[in-house]
Write a structure and sequence with these properties.
The complex is a heterodimer.
Chain A lengths: L13 E12 L2 E13 L4 E5 L6 H8 L8 E10 L2 E2 L5 H7 L4 E4 L13 H12 L4 H14 L5 H4 L9 H13 L5 E5 L7 H18 L2 E6 L2 H7 L2 E6 L2 E7 H6 L4 H9 L43 H5 L4 E5 L2 E4 L30
Parallel strand pairs in A: 3-8, 3-9, 6-7, 7-8
Antiparallel strand pairs in A: 1-2, 1-4, 4-5, 9-10, 10-12, 11-12
Helix pairs in contact in A: 3-4, 3-6, 4-6, 6-7
Chain B lengths: L4 E13 L5 E13 L3 E5 L6 H8 L7 E6 L2 E2 L6 H7 L3 E4 L13 H11 L8 H11 L16 H13 L5 E5 L7 H18 L2 E5 L3 H7 L2 E6 L2 E7 H6 L4 H9 L5 H6 L30 H5 L4 E5 L2 E4 L8 H8 L3
Parallel strand pairs in B: 3-8, 3-9, 6-7, 7-8
Antiparallel strand pairs in B: 1-2, 1-4, 4-5, 9-10, 10-12, 11-12
Helix pairs in contact in B: 3-5
The chains are: A alpha/beta, B alpha/beta.
């Protein structure tokens, strides 16, 4: 079963269980997603955090049915959207959900927009696919949407081509397309990674505003813990194709209970002033690099880099322990015999359910 | 002249002709003195000219005007092959993209040894030993020297780029976004490595990046650029925690902190608009169009670069005693 955080007391809008995705390559089979569980509450934001190659983008692409098959394949799992299974829907059915019920924005707004079509036509295309409206109505709606995403002079800009927009403005166009049909869920895959920090702040504010107005849920994929702190209600930390820690944003930041989460936080520069300024602080990097997912390790994926790894970690996959209501961590340090090795800053909680919630 | 200065940049300009008689003023009058053995961080949004500045300093671009003085020696406006040979031993560069900055057809040994061989610093039979030394120094295994760049991860490639730059034992290294393409955990590895090399080899670094928190962390002093000009310069913590220029203030305010409690309390008013095109700039302060505190003087008169506190510089009319009254009336508080 998957964990539910206090934010998700109600029926989750999206419930993902034991999702597994593989890719055939010349080098063998890559097990990109290895049993992922998470849920998204209505009107809330779930941030999926992780480094490149941890499977966060593949996870959301498989929700949308965007995994190219072959070489990719979803080998198991269930994805329930508003209680309905959407994995393995026939293309016609999937198209009714994609773009209408679930909108998506991507990292690179230039390569995801069609350079030969005006932005107005691209926005109207989504609308005309899902709703029976005329070309003129589509144009009017496109202008309204451009206004909602705060593009100046929307009536003039509707006939412009993507190359005439800056990166931030293109991302606004992407958002306008994604929200055109009033989706219940917006998936944003690194929406601000390519943008400057001032423009990032504008886009994140816009996403928050649209979420408030429309009551939409958001899945936000990012590697930036600052963005997570600013946007998320719930967080899933992914490593080597698995969710290693899961919980509300406060529990992830203030009760970090997986060594990888701790490692990520220690690797980032803090925001406290160093009054002397002479003693140059040092960051604590995570040594090594993520495991090879052609041959994923038998045990914990993080064991090879973990400063607290024990013998068992390399050979036995740790289960997911629930430490507080809705806060889980996949780490042997939560086992009673691992307690000695746990560092002081690691939150060990009360172990509400010491038994495993998921077996891998 | 500051006796400790390693590099003095005086009114440096780099303009590009972009056709139809238009000029792109990428770097437009930069003053900066870099002292021996310090790390100067250079931040700004994309398109502000920070990379152009770095490339002009190492001679990859010709200067349009202005002077760069390296240890009392004036650097040429246009580098000839001889100038490169002379200055590349002293000044090296680390590039942003660890994928395109390494030749895929050369082994790591060839990549690292190329510079020292050209300069005749290493003899042929020393190569393996020296390359091995530098690979170890940047945290890679000496056995990897016969491999090709594609066999390494992004973080490892960045280390190879660092080893290549340092093998010549330069005094000054210009790092152009050395960590932007890397994951958080790997960024920390590279940043620590640079800090350590600064301490042990006595390096001076110009660290160009857009990540404010990282630049503040890494550097001793921090410079902020906007549209080809410097707007603020001071000790890193001063600039980060007590920014004086309105642009730096909004940059710091936009920078998210990895702390959900602080983020909830923060009432963010993001800076409106985007960085304008550096072609055909209007007179006056370049930030005036987006500045929440701009007054009429800002639209017409260029602000002067002045020392507002010891060691803390800014270019803004708010710090002009003659104009202070007028601007205070506009902004409420100056």
């Amino acid at each position: 079963m998957s964990l539910t955080t206090p934010n998700q007391a109600n029926q989750p809008i999206l419930d993902v269980r034991d999702l597994r995705v593989e890719f055939d390559t010349y080098g063998g089979i890559v097990k990109a997603v290895r049993g992922v569980n998470f849920a998204v509450a209505p009107g809330k934001t779930l941030a999926i955090v992780g480094e490149s190659g941890c499977g966060k983008s593949v996870t959301v692409q498989s929700l949308m049915g965007l995994i190219p098959t072959p070489p990719g394949r979803i080998t198991s799992g269930s994805v329930k959207f508003q209680g309905r299974e959407i994995l393995g829907l026939p293309p016609k059915e999937a198209n009714k959900i994609r773009g209408k019920e679930i909108g998506m924005i991507f990292q690179d707004p230039m390569s995801s927009l069609n350079p030969t079509m005006t932005v107005g036509k691209q926005i109207a295309e989504t609308l005309r696919y899902h709703e029976n409206i005329t070309f003129e109505e589509g144009r009017v709606r496109a202008i309204e949407l451009l206004e909602q995403v705060q593009i100046p002079e929307p009536a003039a800009r509707v006939d412009a081509y993507p190359f005439q927009f800056s990166g931030g403005m293109r991302q606004r166009v992407m958002i306008a397309m994604a929200i055109a049909c009033n989706p219940k869920l917006l998936i944003a895959d690194e929406p601000t990674t390519a943008l400057d920090v001032t423009v990032q702040a504008q886009i994140l504010n816009l996403m928050k505003k649209l979420q408030r107005e429309r009551g939409m849920s958001i899945i936000l994929i990012t590697h930036d813990l600052g963005v997570v702190a600013q946007m998320a209600d719930d967080v899933a930390v992914m490593y080597a194709g698995q969710v290693v820690e899961y919980g509300s944003v406060d529990s992830i930041f203030f009760h970090s209970s997986h060594p990888y989460t701790l490692g990520l936080r220690a690797a980032m520069p803090g925001h406290d002033e160093d009054p002397k300024g002479t003693a140059k602080r040092k960051l604590k990097p995570i040594e090594g690099s993520p495991p090879d997912l052609f041959h994923p390790p038998k045990g914990c994926g993080y064991a090879a880099r973990c400063p607290h790894a024990m013998k068992a970690c390399a050979t036995k996959m740790p289960p997911l322990w629930e430490l507080e209501t809705g806060h889980g961590s996949r780490c042997w340090l939560h086992h009673e015999s691992g307690a000695r090795n746990a560092p002081a800053e690691l939150f060990r909680g009360k172990l509400i359910s010491p038994q495993s919630l998921t077996q891998s | 002249m500051n006796p400790q200065s390693i590099l003095e940049i005086r009114d440096l300009k780099k303009h590009f002709e972009v056709g139809k008689g238009k000029t792109l003023k990428a770097v437009d009058g930069i003053q900066l003195t870099i002292r021996e053995n310090e790390i100067v961080g250079l931040v700004g949004e994309s398109g502000c000219g920070k990379s152009t500045l770095g490339r002009t300093l190492v001679g990859l671009y010709d200067k349009t005007s202005g002077e760069v003085i390296y240890r009392g020696q004036k650097m040429p406006t246009r580098f000839t092959a001889n100038d490169f040979k002379k200055f590349s031993r002293e000044i090296q560069m680390i590039f942003q993209d660890p994928y395109s900055s390494l030749n895929p057809r050369m082994t790591i040994r060839e990549i690292i040894a190329e510079g020292p061989m050209i300069h005749g610093i290493w003899s042929r039979d020393q190569i393996d030993e020296k390359v091995g030394f530098w690979l170890k120094r940047v945290g890679l295994h000496p056995d990897h020297m016969s491999r090709y760049p594609h066999e390494f991860s992004g973080g490892q490639r960045q280390r190879i780029g660092i080893a290549r730059a340092l093998a010549l034992e330069p005094k000054l290294v210009v790092c152009d976004e050395p960590i932007s393409a890397l994951d958080v955990s790997v960024q920390a590895q590279v940043v620590n490595l640079l800090g350590e090399l600064k301490a042990t080899l006595g390096l001076t670094l110009l660290f160009i990046a857009h990540d404010l928190s990282m630049v503040r962390f890494v550097s001793d002093r921090m410079a902020v650029m906007y549209l080809g000009q410097m707007v603020e310069l001071g000790a890193s913590d001063e600039v980060y925690f007590r920014p004086r220029h309105p642009y730096t203030q909004s940059l710091v305010a936009s920078n998210p902190e990895a702390d959900p409690r602080k983020e909830r309390e923060r009432n963010r008013k993001p800076l409106q608009g985007e960085i304008p095109s550096p072609i055909n700039l209007k007179p006056g302060c370049r930030f005036a169009g987006r500045c929440p505190k701009a007054g009429s003087a800002c639209q017409s008169v260029d602000p002067v670069w002045r020392e507002i506190e010891p060691g803390h510089f800014a270019a803004c009319h708010l710090f002009d005693p003659a104009l202070k009254g007028e601007l205070a009336a506009v902004s409420g508080n100056a």
